[in-house]
Amino acid sequence: MKNLLIAVLLLCPLAVVAEDYDYDNGSYWTVTGVDTEPGHFDDYMSDLSNVWSKSLKMMQDDGKVLSYKVFGNVNAREDEPDLWLMVEWKSAADMLDSPREYFDDNAEKLFGSMDKSKKAGEKRGKIRTIKGTSMLRELTFN
């Protein structure tokens, strides 16, 4: 009984501290800035609609992705991207630790073969430049 009382007293401060936080940790997001080449904005948006969104829908169906969005940078300053691509992941592990074979299998489903997937990636690379990708953790206020 004495050990139980000591354990309860030791854990009580932890419960009080946990309640003192004004926020909770939320889901993980990847945010990618993309610049489109002049004259290819619509081409890239079409590619996003036909490939990117379909691949993310597949990952949603598998429970890895919670949501995804595209934002246009309305008043882009010099060196800012034209678009922000945002993906909300169920967990960091789903984003970072999924085996390469999982993504290869999805690419084959989308394109019919890895060779066609590679060629589509090369074509996409000619109409856009990735400015950078960040991994963020959403914080929500209590």
Structural notes for this entry:
- The chain is built from five helices and four strands, in the order αβαββαααβ.
- It has helices spanning 2-19, 41-61, 92-96, 100-111, 114-125; strands spanning 23-36, 65-72, 83-89, 128-141.
- α4 crosses α5 (114-125).
- The longest helix has 21 residues, at 41-61.
- The model has no long low-confidence stretch (mean pLDDT 90).
Which descriptors would you attach to this protein?
alpha+beta, four-stranded antiparallel sheet, 48% helix
Report strand %: 25-35%
Instruction: Report the sheet with the most strands, covering strand number, pairing sense and barrel closure.
Output: 4 strands, antiparallel
Number of helices: 5
Helical content (DSSP H or I, runs of 4+): 40-55%
Structural class: alpha+beta
- Uncertain segments of ≥5 residues (pLDDT<50)? none
